[in-house]
Task: inverse folding
């Protein structure tokens, strides 16, 4: 009988660990399951096709890669954090611009991972980005603070605090990312005096 350890040794799995520095984002259309149930499969496929077209366009414009499609979501990968973050914030903004009935949510993390069999990634940053996406509310992009560069010019960073994240040993310092223009508009609206009727 073949044992797992024998197969692992035979194919050099333990020896072939190629570690690389990457940034990861998971994006998800919030409410897709309920939308499919209420609007039907055909309408859901229309929304999904428009979503995937937009993700491809935005990823290409920011030089990041769609690593895999996950039903009503996707995993994106970048060599550097800044282009990936700008892409995800842009995507969150543009999904509303195209009139999607479903908002986007996203999670971002970065760090060293194992590049597995040339096309998959194994490690904490991948898991954390996925968990942050699950934690995000609709219209929200959450990231681990250490993944966010101070060089970002089009993205506003708002501290959210330290959070216990399932599967992570230590609490994670989380930030919320928005476009700088959206953050300025929100600040202007909240600073405006109340309307008198």
Result:
């Amino acid at each position: 009988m073949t044992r797992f350890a024998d197969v692992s040794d035979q194919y050099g799995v333990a020896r072939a660990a190629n570690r690389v520095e990457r940034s990861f984002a998971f994006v998800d259309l919030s409410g897709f399951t309920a939308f499919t149930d209420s609007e039907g499969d055909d309408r859901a496929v229309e929304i999904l096709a428009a979503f995937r077209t937009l993700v491809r366009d935005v990823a290409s414009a920011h030089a990041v890669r769609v690593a895999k499609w996950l039903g009503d979501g996707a995993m994106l990968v970048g060599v550097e954090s800044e282009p990936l973050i700008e892409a995800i914030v842009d995507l969150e903004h543009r999904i509303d611009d195209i009139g999607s009935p479903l908002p986007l949510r996203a999670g971002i993390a970065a760090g060293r991972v194992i590049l597995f069999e040339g096309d998959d990634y194994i490690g904490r940053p991948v898991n954390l980005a996925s968990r942050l996406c699950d934690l995000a509310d609709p219209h929200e992009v959450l990231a681990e603070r250490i993944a966010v560069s101070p060089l970002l010019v089009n993205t506003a960073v708002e501290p959210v605090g330290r959070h216990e994240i399932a599967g992570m040993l230590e609490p994670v310092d989380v930030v919320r990312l928005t476009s700088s223009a959206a953050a300025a508009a929100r600040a202007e609206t909240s600073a405006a005096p109340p309307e008198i009727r």
Summary: The CA atoms of residues 67 and 119 lie 8 Å apart. The helical segments are 4-10, 32-39, 41-61, 81-97, 124-135, 180-191. Strands lie at 18-29, 65-69, 73-78, 104-116, 120-122, 140-144, 155-163, 172-179. The two ends are 81 Å apart (CA to CA).
